[in-house]
UniProtKB/TrEMBL annotation:
One of its GO terms (molecular function) is gamma-butyrobetaine dioxygenase activity. It is an enzyme of class 1 (oxidoreductase). Keywords: Dioxygenase, Oxidoreductase. It holds the Pfam family HD. This is Gamma-butyrobetaine dioxygenase. Gene3D superfamilies: Hypothetical protein af1432 (1.10.3210.10). Its EC number is 1.14.11.1. InterPro entries: HD_domain, HDIG_dom, OP_Dioxygenase, Phosphonate_degrad-assoc. Residues 34-112 form the HD domain. NCBIfam families: HDIG, Phn-HD. It comes from Adhaeribacter pallidiroseus.
Length: 191
């Protein structure tokens, strides 16, 4: 990819956040941009590299990049069914690393895993997150959990899920989209 193509892709994604960032974050007290921004900040505060920070910022992009939000693709008003797959495939198509795409894709299985492994985790979920869990396959089975634990991104996927749950605070500053765009550009240039 040449620099012009990279800049075009980065700008296209930023525009998704400009257009849809103020949208309600599926039944939570924050917007899409506020939620994704908080997740990225949490990853950054823990000292993770740019690819993980980007994955944290982009983990729910499947809710806003889907051009066709038909009724059968909705979780009863709680966002797009399989948004993790929609988002990961979108990022792959734009040239993001497989690591970023897999981290985006894994945040829903991590929720299913944690609800299987830790019953208290389920009790801590917001009502919206409990509702979406049913559309996402519910709690993992023992066999699914064992397989998920073998994934090389398992620990990081669990961190991503924790950030996802924590990133729902009101009145938090959002990241500068210009800084995120620069991270996109650097990331894409290295692929």
């Amino acid at each position: 990819m040449n620099p012009e193509q990279i800049n075009t892709i980065a700008e296209e994604i930023i525009q998704l956040y400009v257009q849809h960032g103020a949208d309600d974050y599926v039944g939570e007290p924050v917007s899409q941009l506020e939620h994704m921004s908080q997740c990225a900040v949490l990853a950054q505060q823990e000292g993770y590299a740019d690819d993980v920070i980007l994955a944290a910022f982009l983990h729910d992009i499947g809710h806003i990049c889907s051009q066709q939000k038909r009724a059968e693709e909705s979780m009863d008003g709680f966002g797009v069914i399989r948004h993790e797959k929609v988002g990961a495939d979108f990022l792959r198509s734009k040239g993001f690393s497989e690591r970023v795409a897999r981290l985006v894709e894994s945040h829903v299985p991590a929720k299913r895993y944690l609800t299987f492994k830790d019953p208290e985790y389920y009790n801590q979920l917001s009502e919206a997150s409990k509702q979406t869990l049913e559309f996402q396959g519910g709690r993992m089975t023992a066999a699914e959990a064992t397989a998920f634990e073998q994934d090389d991104l398992f620990n990081l996927s669990i961190r991503m899920r924790r950030w996802d749950e924590l990133g729902k605070e009101t009145d938090q500053p959002v990241v500068e989209l210009a800084q995120i765009k620069e991270m996109f550009i650097r990331h894409l240039a290295n692929q």
